[in-house]
Amino acid sequence: MAEELPETPVEASEEEPVKQRKNGLYPGVSDELAENMKSGWADTELRDLEPIPQAAETAARRAALSARFPGERLVVPAGNLKTRSNDTEYPFRASVEYAYLTGNQTEDGVLVMEPVADGHQATIYLLPRSNRENGEFWLNGQGELWVGRRHSLAEAEQLYGIPASDVRELAGKLREATGPVRVVRGYDAGIEAALTDKVTAERDEELRVFLSEARLVKDEFEIGELQKAVDSTARGFEDVVKVLDKAEATSERYIEGTFFLRARVEGNDVGYGSICAAGPHACTLHWVRNDGPVRSGDLLLLDAGVETHTYYTADVTRTLPINGRFSEIQRKIYDAVYEAQEAGIAAVKPGAKYRDFHDAAQRVLAEKLVEWGLVEGPVERVLELGLQRRWTLHGTGHMLGMDVHDCAAARTETYVDGVLEPGMCLTVEPGLYFQADDLTVPEEYRGIGVRIEDDILVTEDGNRNLSAALPRQADEIEEWMASLKG
Fold first, then answer.
1. How far apart are CA 285 and CA 430, in angstroms?
2. Could you tell me which residue ranges the Aminopeptidase P N-terminal domain spans (predicted)?
3. Burial class (CB in 10 A: 0-12, 13-18, 19+), 159
4. I need a surface site. Which of 283, 302, 379, 460 has the fewest CB within 10 A?
5. DSSP letter (8 states) at residue 387
6. Residue 18 in this model has a pLDDT that exceeds 90
């Protein structure tokens, strides 16, 4: 990684000396070099750009936001870069609220909705192209010769269909603003500081809740992106099965790296930390260390999802026999989870309560636990007291979209206590987990964890399993793995 020069935009002059990094190799910038760097560059302005594919959808989303908060200034930041270590940053991911309303994914961006007589005037505030007169483009650590070209404001207007302005002027404008203001908090401390005497936590939370609930029902663009994410994820699972022998020779990290390659080639990233849990690690719900051994005869619980370039993520889990064949006890537990998932998926339909699919899956699992003698019945008692939770642990699903746990700020009455509608997308993911140190179950159960998860779209007449391309039934899993291993 190349060593940077100064940390801030500078003028190369005696009056304003170049600010050097400590231990930098160059003592400064000569007047001759500074002057040389100003000229001799081609015009790279991009003209006649096409709008981004979701421009119509983002405009409709802003219109809905405008209708909900008439007469109020609305401020939605993308967020800023976060330091990983010293002078290196984490890869940037714009806030979901900002990306949902604009389609833009640039750090430091801010959407401002100014109230006007007939609604709002939207402006997207961005960093313009790096300044070549003051040397910013090559002397600043975030200059274009260091991190790459960014769009000009004119280009941004063409792409996003929103007037664009210089974000460096925004804080001053907001400090002088009058009238009611709301801001999405937690992403840009500088913007929040400029509004500190104009906003309240309660009003800002109402804005956040509205934007979360707006995403409960997906539009056609979003459904298409979710299907893309799922299709890439299915290919990533196939990639993993093909290299299980290499994972056995190394560790779970070979599985993680294999899936990550598919995510980066076909999408933006993984939608969340991949869970590549072999053997007893499958009993740890969010096992993301992925540093354990991969052994023939054990199960691999792979919970992973590709995130598309527009931030929509899949969330799929398959539990696979590493050697390609389930043992008798593994199949017994797997089949129970499969039956529970089938019951849960069947309960996903318009007009059903959101909780119905969870209740249906939990009932099946409770019945199995009673049948196996692991907990005393009757089943109604087990469910009433939640006794099955020792081995089922988690809820049976969640909303899915631009966040893997999408719409998390929605009101309880519209989410968990709500009713399913066409266009909602959720996971159905029951599981059974018998911890390696659980002395209440027979030894043969211990260390076995099984979860099966699919991404389910609510349709007008029922549901569609977006991840149906990946086999789920035990025999089909074995046949699929055998065909991939050749």
1. 12
2. 53-192
3. buried
4. 460
5. T
6. no
